[in-house]
Amino acid sequence: MRQAAISRNTKETQIELKLNLDGNVENSRIDTGIGFFDHMLILFAYHGNMELELKCIGDINVDYHHTVEDVGIALGSAIAKSLGDKAGIKRYGSMLMPMDEALVEVALDISGRPFLIWDVDFVSEKVGDFDAELGEEFFRALAFNAGITLHIRKLSGVNTHHIFEAIFKGVARGMRKAMKIDKTIKGIPSTKGIL
To answer: What pTM was computed for the model?
Structure first.
């Protein structure tokens, strides 16, 4: 089974996370104490077809930065651990994701070479009490800890909620494609023999 459990405890956050890439998405349970972020992570699990159990207690009385970044670190680490040596995966994934007026393009490579291109601007600095700038922090932490080259580009959109929803769904759908086992791929999907 492609699964992992991560415990991450700092002076800022305490995180317990379980991820099953081949589990039942209906069993996902997510609680970070940040309503909008929980909503995005639920979308991520559902569209990525991942079973995700996540509990984070963070210093959200300060702000949401530590919680959002540390969840990205833990989730990225769990993805990397679940994929193991990456034998047989498709490796690449992309998605053009519409959400009403918003349109986001996502392309990724589970390469072992982490990188993030974040070409996203927002009209509003917040969705409710969630700072829009935290989106980049989350996906940087996710990409660097999962070992993913990740490109996210907003093509259109003015509603910050819609843009975020397109991003989280788009990345999840791209990941779903890239993490899928392809029985025609023999071993590691790289001429180097390692990812």
So the answer is: 0.96
